[in-house]
């Protein structure tokens, strides 16, 4: 398959195209050395601020490359391909990298505002600089052009996340969470690798760009092996994104991990896995489902149907399981299960022709999900510090103790519930309208039902803040500067997207081209 094909080494211009990832790698190495050499009396919070600065610098490189690609002849579909198209720099990857970098930076700010109060974390510097290789892994997954590169990014993100979950070394819950996460993560990686091996065996290639021609040819002779490969991949990634019925690990891991790490897992880790699913499905199953212009094949259609069934299960199980939950981090974990279902809907809608609107809806929802989830976790760090626990009752009487913090939490709750004057309303509405236009009415009904069910536990938070009083009222609410930045940045952006979603959605659709930016080798 690779006879006569030569892979050129990375050149200096290629290295510049990978500046966002290399910037984070350089900052990571610098901070590791600094942590070893700095005296113990020097606060490790300085490492946290350098981490945030490195993430912002990396985001600046991404924005520069995004603008450059947009201005250098997008009509020609210019995409930067490195190492034989095993690593691609396109607008899809750039948009998602901005989401991942923003999520990691917000998680680092949450840590800056709360790490001093968490006595179970003995090595605070590690909490900051280990976020950097995890972010690099997520970025590699977004830019992967073949299965090997994708798996390298996946494992870099996963292994670093295991360590981050275990950083509360004095907490037995953290040790238990880390053990569960390692076991389930190992099973997930095994499923994904086994599914990749089937696709490689069927096509003779690990390049996603080769799948569109090789899979239809293999379909006639080996349909059973193709089913096995695709559904092993779906099961493996379903564990990574905590989609029901593969979600049981999430509440335990989120509860045991440091809160900034829980927020990181909820947004960045989940988003990276979803980006990988989108890349794989649109470069493989799409071309054996009739979407690539050929005749529809049952395997391709069944892959899309499996994604929609997985989405429906995640929405229903996530919302119903959260109804009786009173531990806030577990509640947010189950909320994340339901949101994983919403995020799966656009990529499971198999149209007969190529449309970019469903991918734009996915990216828009992921951006809104980043804001409302990070904001909710930031508020939780403030409340848990004041109350001494992470139970729902810690929010009792919050409006009377800290009215502005309560107002911000109301914004996040309304957005999570998908109600008006919030970005979550339009994010869910766009996806619902996309499913309705595709005439998948049974899924539309499930989306509506799960949203209505979620009102009960989301509004239980508001009820605690405005209509309950308890001994928690005597605890003073103190919002640190880094945490306050996260809360009000996320709240302001959530309200802005609730009032004017059009500019962001129009910009995403203007920047993104499904043919150039998602299909490998078609640009």
Can you walk through the features of this model?
The chain is an all-alpha fold. 72% of the residues lie in helices and 1% in strands. It has helices at residues 12-17, 19-37, 45-71, 91-114, 124-129, 131-143, 147-165, 172-203, 208-219, 223-240, 249-256, 259-282, 298-321, 328-348, 357-387, 398-401, 403-417, 423-437, 441-467, 481-499, 502-511, 514-517; strands at residues 80-82, 87-89. It has a two-stranded antiparallel sheet with strand order 1-2. Residues 1-6 have low confidence and may be disordered.
Defining key terms:
523 residues, mainly alpha, 72% helix, 1% strand, globular, disordered N terminus
Strand order of the largest sheet: 1-2
The proportion of strand residues reads under 5%
CA-atom Rg in angstroms: 22 Å
Number of helices: 22
**Mean pLDDT metric:** 88
The biggest beta sheet, please?
Answer: 2 strands, antiparallel
Taken from the alpha-carbon principal axes, the silhouette is: globular
Q: Which regions have little confidence, pLDDT < 50, spanning 5+ residues?
A: 1-6
Number of strands: 2
> Which structural class should the secondary elements be placed in?
mainly alpha
Q: Give the ordered list of helices and strands.
A: HHHEEHHHHHHHHHHHHHHHHHHH
First CA to last CA: what distance?
22 Å
Helix % is: over 70%
């Amino acid at each position: 398959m690779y006879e006569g094909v030569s892979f050129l080494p990375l050149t200096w211009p290629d290295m510049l195209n990978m500046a966002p990832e290399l910037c984070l790698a350089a900052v990571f190495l610098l901070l590791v050395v600094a942590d070893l050499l700095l005296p113990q009396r020097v606060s490790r919070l300085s490492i946290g601020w350098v981490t945030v600065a490195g993430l912002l610098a990396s985001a600046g490189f991404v924005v520069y490359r995004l603008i450059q690609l947009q201005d250098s002849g997008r009509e020609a579909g210019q995409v930067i391909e490195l190492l034989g198209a095993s690593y691609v720099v396109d607008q899809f990857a750039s948009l998602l990298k901005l989401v991942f970098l923003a999520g990691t930076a917000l998680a680092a700010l949450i840590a800056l505002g709360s790490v001093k109060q968490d006595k179970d974390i003995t090595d605070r510097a590690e909490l900051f600089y280990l976020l950097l290789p995890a972010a690099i892994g997520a970025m590699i997954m977004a830019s992967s052009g073949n299965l090997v590169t994708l798996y390298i990014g996946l494992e870099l993100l996963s292994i670093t996340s295991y360590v981050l979950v275990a950083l509360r070394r004095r907490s037995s819950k953290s040790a238990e969470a880390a053990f569960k996460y390692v076991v389930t993560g190992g099973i997930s990686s095994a499923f994904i690798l086994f599914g990749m091996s089937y696709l490689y065996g069927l096509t003779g290639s690990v390049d996603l760009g080769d799948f569109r021609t090789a899979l239809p040819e293999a379909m006639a002779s080996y349909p059973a092996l193709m089913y096995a490969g695709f559904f092993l991949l779906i099961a493996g990634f379903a564990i990574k994104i905590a989609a029901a019925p593969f979600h049981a690990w999430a509440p335990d891991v989120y509860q045991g991990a440091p809160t900034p790490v829980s927020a990181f897992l909820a947004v960045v880790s989940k988003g990276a896995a979803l980006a990988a699913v989108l890349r794989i499905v649109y470069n493989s199953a799409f071309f054996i489902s009739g979407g690539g212009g050929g005749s529809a094949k049952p395997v391709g259609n069944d892959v899309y149907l499996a994604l929609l069934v997985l989405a429906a299960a995640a929405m229903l199980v996530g919302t119903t399981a959260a109804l009786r939950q009173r531990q806030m981090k577990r509640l947010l974990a189950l909320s994340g299960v339901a949101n994983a279902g919403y995020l799966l809907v656009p990529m499971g809608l198999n149209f007969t022709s190529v449309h970019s609107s469903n991918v734009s809806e996915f990216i828009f929802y992921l951006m809104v999900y980043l804001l409302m989830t990070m904001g909710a976790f930031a508020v939780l760090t403030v409340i848990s510090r004041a109350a001494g626990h992470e139970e729902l009752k810690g929010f009792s009487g919050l409006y009377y103790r800290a009215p502005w913090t309560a107002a911000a939490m109301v914004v996040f709750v309304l957005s999570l519930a998908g109600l008006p004057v919030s970005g979550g309303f339009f994010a869910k509405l766009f996806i619902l309208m996309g499913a309705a236009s595709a005439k998948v009415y049974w899924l539309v009904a499930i989306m509506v039902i799960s949203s209505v069910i979620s009102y009960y536990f989301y509004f239980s938070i508001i009820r605690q803040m405005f209509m309950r009083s308890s001994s928690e009222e005597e605890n003073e609410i103190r919002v640190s500067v880094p945490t306050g930045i996260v809360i009000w940045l996320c709240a302001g952006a959530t309200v802005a997207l609730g009032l004017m979603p059009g500019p962001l959605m129009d910009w995403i659709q203007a920047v993104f081209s499904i043919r150039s930016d998602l299909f490998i080798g078609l640009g």
